[in-house]
Amino acid sequence: MKFRTFAMFVGPSIFLMILFIAAPLATVFLQSFQITQPVVETQQVETCTPGFLEQTCVTETKTVPVLDEFGNPVTTTEWVGFLSYQRVLQLDRVGAALAAGSWQQIMAIDFWKALRFTLTFTLLTLPLILVVGLGLAVAVNNAAKAIRGQIIFVSLLPFIITPVIGSLSIYWLFVGDGILTAGLEWWLERDIAMFAQAWTIEVLMLFYRVWHVAPFAFVIFYAGLQTVNQDTLESAIIDGASRWDRLRYVVIPHLMPLIIFVSLIHLMDAYRVFEEVVGFRSQAHVISLQWLTYDFLEPDDAGNRAISRASASAMLTMIGIVILLIPLLRRTWRDHKGSSH
Amino acid sequence: MMKKLLLAGAASLAMTGGAWACAFENTVPVSSLSAGFEAWKSVTEAMAECGNFEAELDQEFRTKQPAAFAANPSLYQIGGVSNGTVTPLINEGTIRPLDDLVAAYGENLSPNQLIRVDGQIMAVAMMVNTQHLMYRQDIFDELGLAVPTTWDEVITVAEAIQGAGVVDYPLGGTMKSGWNLAQDFNNMFLGFGGQFVGDDSMPMINTEAGMKALDMMQRLTAFMDPEYLVSDSTYVQQQFQQGKIAMANLWASRGGAMDNEAESQVVGLVNAAAAPLAMEGGAPATTLWWDGIVIAKNITDEEAEAAFRVAMEGLDTEMVQGANDEAIWLISGYEPNRLAAGAIATATASPPPASYPSTSQMGLMHTALGNELPAFFTGERGAEDTLAAIEEAYITAAKEAGILE
Amino acid sequence: MSTPKALRQPFSLRLGSAAFLIFWCLIAAFPIFWIGVMSFKVPVDAFAPNPFDVVFGPETRARGKGLSILDIVLGLVVLWFAARVAMRNLSPLVAKYSPFGVVALGWIAASLAFGVGFVIVFFGILPPILGVLNGIAGPLGAPIIGLTTEHYQAVWFENEFWRNFVNSLIVTTGVVTVSLTVGTLAGYGLARSGSNIAFWILIIALIFRALPHSVLVAGYLPVFVNSAEILRPILGEAAPTLYGQPLAVIAVLVSINQPFTIWMLRSFFQSIPVDLDESARVDGCTHFQAFRWVIMPVMWPGVITTGLFSFLLAYNDFLVTSLLLDAQNQTMVPGIVGYFNRETTTTDQVEAVAAAVSITAPLFLLVMVFQRQIVSGLTAGAVKG
To answer: Is residue B184 located within the same domain as residue B115?
Structure first.
């Protein structure tokens, strides 16, 4: 294909991605090395606010931004190098904690706490999803044809349901005396509070993610199973391969590209874990990297937002994903080289 | 589109002589952006009677408001704010002084409603809100308990209730990590006479008041549902409604829900009292909030006039009479009910509780508190370390925001 | 059909696999079933700690709202037939009546018609008939399970949730159409170009997909709000304010979803033999003509599957829509989350549950109708790594 034709085919897609992803990404990259501040001055300000019947007036020193002649706040932008990264990573405190040999002190720093959880979350859910997805695919493939449709339908529900609603529906089952907590309490004959300690919340978050994503893995593996070469299977049977051997030496190698695909997508999505933190209100115990970025960006009542630190933490999140993806990407590169020659 | 037609219909109907009519027919398109709680629903519905009005009740209003009002022309004419969220609008100069408009159309406003900054009217308040004590009168009567006036008494009472075993947990707490938890700390900290930042903007949290506040909060958590770090006001309100708790320091605007027959199993059993004191002779350990309206600066004077007149129709006596129990209104015609007594006792206490400070520093401090306090309650950090971490987080944020050098 | 003996499974394996499937189906369906049950009860019942209170709803029943045995039986029968029609009859009907090449449109029309028909039969025709029947059925007609549709009425009529529904429809249709058009072209181009540029485009797209959305979205807001001012020098007075515009949100969602779309479609096109379009090229077609006349007729399975993923993304999105749309153009998901703000009440929460169940219904329908297409599209190669 000539380059011109190729460019015309991919042009619109590239244009959209540059405009709405690459451009903001470049801004984020620049902002992580800059700090933009309003120029402020302190003033004595008298503020009168209502009581129930009478007002109270207080005079206090307030810091207010300086406005230019058009009424817009005057701002200064400064290049600060890696200052924002340092403020997020807090390497000096990490060093001190390492010297003291204290894991707890490292975990007191938001970024490292978030990284710890994000990594555990990503790496624990990945095998679970692959195994559950594959197990389901094999089991459904074994099931009678008449009921396959219904089973696939039910299995897909957790995947298609709106994530915000899915996580809430599970949250309600467990919070306070939610019926499943009440059931567990009755069964184990003890008082249980699922949201009072970190590990139970983490288990619930893991469960939710597996519940939500396993159907995706399932449907892709199931589709893959439909194209397993029957001749290979039959010759394996003639060679006396056991059921397990057939799964291991014929089916799984056949599904390998799909396993890579699912892993790739899942690693990216899980590393950006965010909805679970909000849905299960786990901020007190565990936070994730994207939540950290979101929290920096969320304006407080006074409208302040930590844009530079948010940019730095977003860049760090991206670097983390790229590192995680490198092994899978190398494989894709080899396949590409193999296919184009 | 449909809604517009309906509103136009309602307006024309009103013109023909309903008692709730809007006093004029609005011809300039006006829109508002505010939070979405019940009081705002009533107010914006009343505004809509004037026609040509679109209300946006948005939970993201804190993010959208500063940006939307800074645009030229402003995307909204009317803004719904509280003393917390008005700060960026005043600081960035995106709302206009209302003195002329109040003089022309504000004849029904009381002086108490006019929020003045350096003498200029910048906002018109419609209601006050505060956290104060709500308790189960029936349980107190049964156990012969007196209503506590200090937090130490709250603990004594909570012990008695726990001993009697009449409810799951004696106390409810709005201590969801983040904004709510920080707000609870603010209440207690101010109750112990603390001051958040000094005149040089440096934090003053790691002080005796801070230690006392943390200590008191921790003692209280012993009487709460162990899941207190995920419980927000709605959750505590639900615990009340389901009869699971006997007391809580809860927002006045939540009072109405206790007597809502569709939701509550404790109708008529909950009473309200002033927020308890943290120390003798101090102010009630709570903050006063107001909610009200502002008018954008980047719009024409004609639009501003129409917007203000529409807003005044939303804040009139007829609206209050239709929504009396939804808030502690500042508007004439409001009849305080049984549960409003707590808020009124709190607001009129002597010395009175502080109004929540509308400063940039407070916004940063609130975020730092919300992020760092949970580690203390999960037991990962001691009180002093936590307070030091809060100060450090605040300083980092304040440097980035340009408030500290 | 006889199975070779060696492929026949031992009883223990069959039992194990059946047990696994049943267990999974329970886990998969229960939370959704449960919010469905909650949405039909008054708040006191919906949040009751005892599960039997939630299911049978004594408080709801006490208010005279409930279902009799007769209602339940008839309701289930109708549901059963509806599901049957959706799974079996819809597909041949569409195949028969949709004109060539626009099967997708045919499906959209068919599922919409089915959805509307179902709502009319189930909520419009059935209740009055049952009302009469219950009156004459005696004990069979007495309510045994508390059930009220008041929350649905509140959500759809009082709170005008149908406006959110229409907005969702606009955004979703827009996203799916644009995303597929742009993505199909790019996917085809990438699949047929062995060059290194193509490879790097794919890798960069993959990295783009990894970017946390909250960062992107926060970057859009100030630009969108001020776009009228920013674009005025270029477009003059016609410069639009992008904030609140469904079109702008469609563009954002399409872009965010492009990486996934082009990856899927590229692998799908790779599974279509190159000989097919090369023979067309030998006959003198340009690449575009080859694409139009040779590839388009055979690409629908992959496109439909990819389209479903785009649909899910657009329909379920919260972050982008909640921040970039104003109230008049709000879609359903942020509309629902709006019920859970700081000052919400228990009734609001049950209404939110009712709204949540309502927005899940179209998804149900979609999967029922497209289930076979998803699997066959994936099988045909949309995911070959």
So the answer is: no
* Omega before residue B73 within 30° of 0, cis: yes
Q: Are residues C86 and C160 in the same domain?
A: no
* Residue of C27, C44, C214 best to disrupt the A interface, most CBs of A under 10 A: C214
Residue that finishes a domain, picked among C124, C148, C172: C148
Please say which residue of C148, C165, C183 terminates a domain: C148
Cβ of A51 and B401 within 8 Å?
Answer: no
In DSSP notation, B255-307 reads HHHHT-TTT-SSTTTEEEEPPPBSSTTS-BSSEEEEEEEEEBSSS-HHHHHHH
H/E element, C53? helix C51-56
Domain harbouring B32, CATH code: 3.40.190.10
**C252/A20 CB distance under 8 A:** yes
Q: What are phi and psi of A55, to 5 degrees?
A: -85, 155
Tell me the pLDDT tens digit for each residue of A109-151: 889 999 999 999 999 999 999 999 999 888 888 777 778 888 8
What is the per-residue pLDDT for C343?
A: 56
| Nearest in space to B328 (alpha carbons), one of B275, B241, B256, B257 | B256
Residues B47 and B155 in one domain: no
| CB contact at 8 A, C114 and C90 | yes
Domain covering A110-335 assigned CATH 1.10.357.10 in the classification: no
What is the distance, to the nearest Å, from the Cα of residue B278 to the centroid of all Cα atoms in its chain? 20
pLDDT at B156: 92
The CA distance from B277 to C74, in Å, is: 61
- What is the percentage of chain C residues whose pLDDT exceeds 90? 3
Residues 6+ apart with CB under 8 A from A82: A33
User: Tokens 């979703």, residue?
Assistant: C172
Considering only A37-41, A78-82, B150-154, C70-74, which range has the smallest mean pLDDT? C70-74
Q: Are residues C261 and C358 in the same domain?
A: yes
Residue B220 falls inside a structural domain: yes
**What's the structural domain count of chain C?**
2
Model confidence at C68: pLDDT above 80: no
Give the chain B residue nearest C328 (alpha carbons): B56
- Predicted structure pTM score: 0.85
Give the closest-approach CA distance of A45 to chain C in angstroms.
29
